[in-house]
Amino acid sequence: MGEASARGRWLSGAVTLAVLIFLLLPLLILMIQSFTAESHLSFPPTRYGVRWYRHIFTARDWRGAMSISLLVAIVVTPAALCLGTAAALGLDRGPARGRRELYTLMISPMVLPHIILGLGLLRVLLWLGLTDTIVGFVLAHLTIAVPYVVVMVGASLATFDRAAEEAAQSLGASPARALWHVTLPMIRPGLIAGAIFSFIASFDEFIMTYFLATHNMTLPIQIFSSLSYDVDPSIAAVSGLMIIVTATLTSLLVARGQVLGGGKAIA
Amino acid sequence: MLGGEAAPARARWLLLAPTALLYTVTFLVPLILLLVFSVATWDRGVIRLGFSLANYRDFFADGVTAAIFGRTVRLAALITGVCLVLGYPVAAFMRHCGPRMRLVLVVLVVSPLLTSVIVRNVAWLLILGRTGLVNTGLQAMGVVDAPLKLMYNELGVVIAVVHVYLSFMVLPIFGALISIEPALEESAASLGAKSWQVFWNVTLPLSMPGVAAGCTLVFVLSMGVYLTPVIMGGNFVVTLPMVISEVVRNQFNWANGSALALVLLLFVTVLLSASARLQRRGSES
Amino acid sequence: MTHTTRTKTTTISRRRFLAGMGAAGLTTVPAVRRAAAQEEKRLIIYNFDGNLGKFYRDHWIDPFAAANGIQIDTITMTGSAPPMAKIKALVDAGKPDADVIPMQLSDYVFATRNNMLQPIAREEIPEYANLYPQFIYPHGPGMVLWCYGLAYNTEKIKDPPTAWRDLWSPAYKGKAGLNEALFEQALQMTNLAFKGKPTPVDDETFAHLKRLRPNLVSLWTTGAQAEQLLRTGEVWITPLWNGRVFKLKDEGVPLEFVVPKEGFFVRHNPFCIPKGAQHPGWAKRWLNYVCNEERQRILAEKFYYASSNRRVTYTPDVAKRVVVASPDIVARAVREDFEVILDNLPQWRKGWDAWKQS
Question: In this complex, do C225 and A231 lie within 8 Å of one another by their Cβ atoms?
Fold first, then answer.
């Protein structure tokens, strides 16, 4: 197309590289810092070791927080998938009238400041007696996870070719069977992306849970609480762990090419 | 498809019902409660229910809260601007990559979301502090004599928030860019337009829906930042969410806090609907 | 008095044992004993998190539980502040989730105004006789005294500060810190420095505060943040509580604590019993136990929190670190009126936020 556009390509490439360094630098620092053997944060560490990883797996408060975070996220993810997929299907298959308004309504918790959600939810849960319970956390996290599923599955559905489903139905399959055996597999990328985002959204959620929790602490709250007393490298080890886990999950799926296969949306 | 005209509508409501039920409990009812509290009064630590617009009046009258709101808006605008300037080139670059590379870039761009907000801020402490990575490096290279003040001010907050919300700008713009027919750009170029003219007159306008979507998303998310200004702004940077939290947690003033939260909600809602209308008009033209 | 002691001890004569129990504050008045006997053998306490919480478990909770054969459960408070909104909702519903709640003084005012606590008569806690009167509240004893003064870096600052006013010195430009979480104390401190008394907070206060702005690097929120700032040398001087300063000093950070000339603040936690608590009898017995000089002294030695118990004796080294080690020093502490503070908190907060933006 000409050297001018090649120049443009070079420019955008340079900016992209700079941006990527900017995005990855803190994560890199955290990973390095997590292997410090000292008792407080300072970069670069002078001595290395896995002391803090061992600490977070043995210390009672960290283990407790990790279990609670994991438990909540594991409950929230499939629930969000069910609710969100149903909602996305409802929007996609339903009449076009009102679709846009309903869609906005469905994804609104994702964009609204969590402090508003947290404040209101606290009052309701206070009344129901569900503050500081796993059920309460699940309700809060579900509210912000479902929109992610609606967006991801909705994007997949939008680019999904109905022909296959129609063909299955014309061959005698009931709508439900067609859905299960034809549609769902083909929108798998959306489902997986929705699941990943749901999990991460729940695992990382801080402010709503902060308003609700007193005794049961999720990982982000435990991190915040440990910041109140001592800034020790536990938090670096915890984030190192979170980065490793989510990176592994994502790269596994990327390697199988499943995340963004199919629809025109991204790849 | 599913039989009849009424069936799709009915099926839709049935499918939306579970989510609607969830939202009613966790979203709608809370909002109503907030509304009720926002017209209550705070009497030296005791909340008295009733009807009083004092909290809303104070928002505009006391001079401080409105100013904080204004600065929150300004901060969000700044963050959005930076995200746009950095994010558009990344999205453009991704457009011209192969599928594998795109995937890698998407994952990298989204990676800051993999970490918890507090932990990210702690990492920034180590990088931007007076004795942090950047300052040590710059001083070692002789670029500066004294450490730069990169933290405990608006700059630190902007850097940290851009870091995490950049992906919300990149992905919508990217989505818009790849839906542009390359033929349009090629024909413009073949008619003699220079590449920057092609970009300015063809690519950019056609990518506007994505730009609008990205900007709206980043702006609204930035209006809600709570923890980052506390850690990165040295508490000098005050945002409305911080005020809401302080008022409720330390003053036990649910009345005032609810009113502030609802004003924020109203603002965000107005913004979202205005932006949606803009995007619709843009994509229709 | 019957105990089931599950502790492993070698043979101790019964009389000496009882005498020891008395000295350790484990005996109490008959009325309370009777009340406790009617309750189930259980107690639920709101506990601090971190090392302080661990200390309480080891020294204040487990020994009492073992000596009395009761089960004590703790609910950890994040950030060592009780969730007052939640507690209020539970008390209003008649079902508080704990029997003893240590609260901050502002929480205490809120709790009393909202009728959340049950009063404790003086006779019900014999140890009250040994406490300084100003730390006895209608709803419980105030304990865990900490003192707010100036912390400064001895390596960077050769001329030690002696007054709050020294914070304003141009020598500390860009080197000072303030506690954002205790902003009301910062306002009162400014008043102490320039007006001689902590209140009222008015335009003059903020005018003085404005002049401090160039000196300030950061308004830190948590003790850990303050530590980080002091360790890295970003902050050379800041108001800080005594316990933290000496802890850092022991870890090798070159810090020293100064009790400012104009006066210093002493804050503490009233330990109270919510209305409708299930085990008030045991709660009062436990409160009596922890008020005892032995329990208090251990706390002072470990965390440098002074005791509200007059009879506690400190070694000279601990006395220096604890600061409020004797009645005359306690008398010199600046009294804060928390009713006034809570009443004015909204205006003070707005003024503070406005000052930050300028």
Answer: yes
- So what's the pLDDT on residue A93? 81
B217 inside 8 A of chain A by CB: yes
The answer to whether C132 touches C308, Cβ cutoff 8 Å, is yes
**Facing C86 at nearest CB: one of A131, A210, A228:** A131
Question: C115 touching B, CB under 8 A?
Answer: no
Q: How far apart are CA B158 and CA B124, in angstroms?
A: 12
Query: In the prediction, which pLDDT does C342 show?
Result: 87
Residue-range domains of chain A with CATH: 59-255 (1.10.3720.10)
Q: How many residues does chain A have?
A: 267
Q: Could you report the per-residue pLDDT of C220-252, keeping only the tens digit for each?
A: 887 778 888 898 888 999 999 888 898 889 888
Chain C touching partners, 3 or more CB pairs below 8 A: A, B
Question: Are A133 and A214 spatial neighbours (Cβ–Cβ below 8 Å)?
Answer: no
Continuous H helices in B24-116: 29-38, 54-61, 65-95, 99-110
| Token pair recorded at residue B285 | 């033209």
pLDDT at C26: 56
Mean pLDDT of the C42-58 span = 88
CATH architecture of C146-266+335-357: 3-Layer(aba) Sandwich (3.40)
For the segment C21-43, the average pLDDT, to the nearest whole number, is 70
Q: Which residues 82-101 in chain B show a CB within 8 A of chain A?
A: 86-87, 89-90, 92-94, 96, 99
Closest C-chain CA to B232: C218
Considering CB atoms only, which of B108, B123, B199 is closest to A29? B123
Contacts of C85 in chain B (CB under 8 A): 248, 252, 254
Q: Do B117 and A204 form a contact (C-beta atoms < 8 A)?
A: yes
Residues of A in contact with B30 (CB under 8 A): 117, 119-121, 123-124
**C216-238 b/e with 16+ CB inside 10 Å = b?**
bbbbbbbbbbbbbbbbbebbbbb
The partner residue sitting opposite C232, judged by closest CB among B46, B130, B254, is B130
C265-272 and C140-153 beta bridge pairing = antiparallel
Q: Which residues contact C227 (CB under 8 A, 6 or more apart)?
A: A230, A231, C244, C248
Say which of C75, C223, C231 has its CB closest to residue A215.
C75
Domains of chain B in sequence order? 1-35 (no CATH), 71-284 (1.10.3720.10)
Q: Nearest residue on chain B to C348, judged by CA atoms?
A: B251
| Top-tier CATH class for C14-139+273-291 | alpha beta
In chain C, CATH 3.40.190.10 covers 14-139+273-291, 146-266+335-357
B273: chain A residues, CB-CB within 8 Å: 104
**pTM, full prediction:** 0.83
CB nearest to C228's CB, from A61, A214, A231: A231
| Per-residue tens of pLDDT for chain B, all 285 residues | 444 445 667 777 888 889 999 999 998 999 898 999 999 988 887 888 889 898 898 888 888 899 999 999 999 999 999 999 999 999 999 988 888 888 888 888 988 877 777 778 878 888 888 777 888 888 888 888 888 888 888 999 999 999 999 999 998 899 888 888 888 888 888 888 787 888 888 888 888 888 988 999 899 989 988 888 888 888 888 999 999 988 888 888 889 999 999 999 899 888 888 887 877 776 665
Q: Do B238 and C109 touch (CB under 8 A)?
A: no
